[in-house]
Design goal:
Helices cover 20% and strands 22% of the residues. It has 132 residues and is α+β, with helices and mostly antiparallel strands. The chain has a domain at 3-90: N-terminal domain of TfIIb. The structure holds zinc ion (2 copies).
Length: 132
Amino acid sequence: MKYRLMDVLACPMCKKFPLELIVLSERELEGVEAPQGFRCSDYCGLKKAFLKDLEEEPDCCSCFSREIVEGVLYCPECGRWYPIIDEIPRLLPDKIRQEKDIKKVELAFLKKHADELPDKITKEGRPFNLAG
Ligand SMILES: [Zn+2]
Ligand SMILES: [Zn+2]
């Protein structure tokens, strides 16, 4: 998932924008160059700020050419977390995440990265977490 997607992604359950991004691993895309003068439009995922609040022009070419391989999108409004697995953000509604196969994958992801993630996700995150 490219950083620039933070500019458009909202929580599928409560529609909160922007979401918080926690990056676990990322890579630079080779041979991918941002269009001349590219910049995020409202919210810059790399700077974690609205462009209007920044004093300097952010380097949004990186938002275009850096891919998050694994990470978590967290909704500060409703406390839900959404995994980024194999570069794909999985912004699914609760009902689908409760399906056995999906829940299994997402819980395994959470367990694998438990040490790298804050308690608000591992212990209190919705719709499920590791606290049981
Ligand atoms: Zn940007
Ligand atoms: Zn939400």
